[in-house]
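Exercise 7.
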Amino acid sequence: MSTFNVPTREEVNANNQAIFDNLNKALGFVPNLYATYAHSETALENYLNLSNAKTSLSAKEKEVVNLAVSQVNDCIYCLSAHTAIGKMNGFNDEQILELRAGRASFDTKLNALAGLAKNITENRGKANQDVVDNFLTAGYSKGNLIDTIVLVGDKTISNYLHSTTQVPVDFPVAQPLEATEV
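Solution. The predicted structure, written as tokens, is:
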């Protein structure tokens, strides 16, 4: 298997160097997965544009989707990163584990969102109609549905990138989700 290094600022093009500088300013470091995008001259900027695009979903709702999708795709990097981000958005450890399993017993609306994100990911975009209906009945709009699908795609890209490159996780590693919890 090929080994993917995590490129340093000096190993990437000028555009990616500027992005690294901005990430350092905003986050205090360049996450390894973001740095890995910089093997391409354009992928990091394109991904960040997609990931930071306007959406009808709140930051908290985005983390619900990110956690459910990353669990289905078994991406330890993204599970670790989004566990940390989920905590910054007010979720506790128990809630994060539940969201990873595609549920949110603590919030009916987030439960519908987590279930939809999990179902879309498991079924490769062919969501079950009852899951979609539950999402809409919970108070989400058709626009929210589209934004959720876009976010599933966004997170799947990073999940696949890590699954292929296996760059080191540079966040506190997320605990495993027990099979009985899924």
